[in-house]
Design brief:
Blueprint: H1 2-15, H2 19-36, H3 42-53, H4 57-68, H5 71-85, H6 87-99, E1 106-109, H7 124-127, H8 136-147, E2 153-156, H9 175-181, E3 186-191, H10 198-207, E4 210-215, H11 220-227, H12 231-244, E5 250-255, H13 260-263, H14 266-275, E6 279-284, H15 300-314, E7 320-323, H16 328-331, E8 343-346, E9 351-353, E10 360-361, E11 363-364, H17 373-378, H18 381-393, H19 407-417, E12 420-421, H20 433-453, H21 461-465
Helix pairs in contact: 1-2, 1-5, 2-3, 10-12, 15-20, 18-19
Bound molecules: iron/sulfur cluster.
Iron/sulfur cluster (SF4) binds next to loops.
């Protein structure tokens, strides 16, 4: 089987040296892939086959990747798919046999809270440099543990992770060295982009297994108003440097009541495509952490507009667009709490949280002698209650979230298990709770209509028909 796998990767990469040859062979690749891939990966190949048959814009995105990204990235991502499908699949099955639950697919690590900017509403610039941070050895320990589960994908967040690109604070090695050491893994790094210059872009291209997602809040006026004079220009320069170095990169967009009209416009998305972004992650503002501001939270009606917009973009433009909430149908709802094929989050303090927006924890990597602190967290009562809530509450993958759609579930899990807030001054489960519950009810009504009547998600009908998506595993 290993020989077959390597042959398959080589065939795909050989074909990729000629755009037309690759595209005209995509259907065959999907069919052969479906035949030899483990069951867990057949859905993705089925979708690829469907995209070819329907001349979907995803094929134009594949053309863009072949034309604009360095072949290193194609090798990295095809290998990631294959490693995840084969080597990882065996490890995940072994994990499931041993622990009675399939493991999560990835981990988000936030090595630091510090940032070089002082954005309005973000605490990192003001407090971050005084906060603890993860060491190089901490990072390695986390990666080694999840790698043993079959995970080949790591997300790095912050603070501003490029501050640790060359070296992690007092260490001699940095994130760049981690990417180099784990060359068969792929890293997605959320960054404000302002420290990415030609040299860093060239290093990312050479590594071929790291993709930066650069935060953009809108055009110059919106970005500079929130993040400081000149920041938009620096972000544009970073994108130019990445594009010139042929790095596979994208954007990360947080939408609030203040920038909603701009970032939901075609003009904005087309600007991202023109700048060379291959993907855009959209995140609605969630009032967690210190100094939450509910006036920035979009309304349920705006959330519906964004759900429709991301769907429209996905089906009309050569860029992959996903919304962390509204794209729930793609990933079968909430992916938090170490759910099978989901994820968990390790903060800069070492706290292990169910999700980057669920800043509650019952385990910390520094407060245990265990060799498997992440597994301990996955098996904990706190994570188990969140996963139980996912099974019981999620009858609509457009309203999957226990922070904003079913906040009573998170509140009960925190209160019953004694999980603690990882941030001082968090009020999402206290002062803000009645407001969030009210909003949740309004959204759930809209989401039900969208899911059952809009016809937008009919392509998922088969996948969801028998209710099996609610089952763990
Ligand atoms: S808890 Fe909410 S934000 Fe986090 S993964 Fe689940 S749905 Fe997404």
């Amino acid at each position: 089987m290993i020989g077959l796998k390597e042959k398959f990767v080589d065939t795909v990469l050989n074909l990729a040296s000629d755009e037309e040859r690759l595209v005209s062979n995509l259907r065959n690749i999907a069919r052969i892939g479906k035949y030899i891939a483990p069951a867990t990966h057949r859905d993705q190949l089925q979708r690829l086959e469907w995209a070819v048959d329907h001349d979907h814009p995803a094929i134009d995105l594949i053309r863009r990747i072949i034309r604009e990204a360095d072949p290193h990235f194609l090798r990295g991502f095809v290998t990631l798919f294959m490693e995840h499908a084969w080597a990882g699949s065996k490890q995940r099955k072994a994990f499931e046999r041993e622990h009675g639950i399939a493991p999560p697919s990835f981990v988000v690590i936030s090595p630091l809270a510090a940032c070089n900017l002082k954005c309005v509403g973000c605490y990192a610039g003001a407090y971050g440099h005084k906060e603890p941070h993860l060491s190089y050895d901490d990072m390695v320990k986390i990666i080694e543990e999840v790698r043993g589960w079959g995970t080949r994908f790591i997300t790095i967040s912050g603070g501003e992770p490029t501050l640790y690109w060359n070296r992690i604070k007092d260490d001699t090695k940095g994130l760049r060295d981690i990417c180099r050491e784990y060359s068969d893994m792929v890293f997605l790094m959320y960054t404000n982009g302002t420290l990415i210059d030609d040299r860093m872009a060239a290093e990312m291209a050479e590594l071929g297994n790291i993709t930066p997602a650069i935060s953009v809040e809108g055009f110059k006026e919106q970005t500079d108003a929130r993040r400081g004079e000149g920041v938009f220009e620096r972000v544009m320069q970073a994108m130019d440097a990445l594009r010139a170095a042929r790095v596979f990169f994208g954007a990360s967009v947080t939408y609030t009541t203040q920038n909603f009209d701009i970032v939901s416009s075609d003009e904005f998305l087309d600007m991202l495509i023109d700048k060379g972004c291959f993907y855009a992650w959209y995140f609605m503002y969630i009032p967690v952490g210190r100094s939450p501001d509910i006036s920035l939270m979009i309304t349920p009606q705006q959330r519906e507009i964004m759900a429709r917009k991301t769907w429209e973009w996905l089906n009309s433009r050569p860029i992959f667009v996903a919304d962390f909430w509204n794209s729930g149908p793609m990933v079968k709802g909430c992916i938090a709490a170490g759910r099978p094929n989901g994820y968990l989050h390790v903060t800069h303090q070492g706290d292990i949280c169910p999700c980057v927006f669920m800043l509650y924890s019952a385990h910390n990597i520094h407060e245990t002698d265990s060799d498997t602190p992440l597994l301990d967290a996955v098996k904990s009562d706190f994570f188990a209650m969140i996963r139980k809530g996912q099974l019981e509450k999620e009858n609509n993958p457009l309203a999957p979230c226990q922070i904003v759609d079913h906040p009573e579930v998170l509140k009960e899990a925190v209160e019953k298990t004694g999980a603690r807030s990882t941030q001082e001054g968090q009020t999402i489960l206290t002062d803000l709770h009645p407001f969030i519950r009210q909003r949740a009810q309004e959204w759930c009504q809209i989401a039900d209509r969208l899911w059952t009547q809009s016809g937008l998600y009919k392509g998922y009908a088969k996948e969801y028909a028998d209710g099996r998506w609610l089952l763990p595993g």
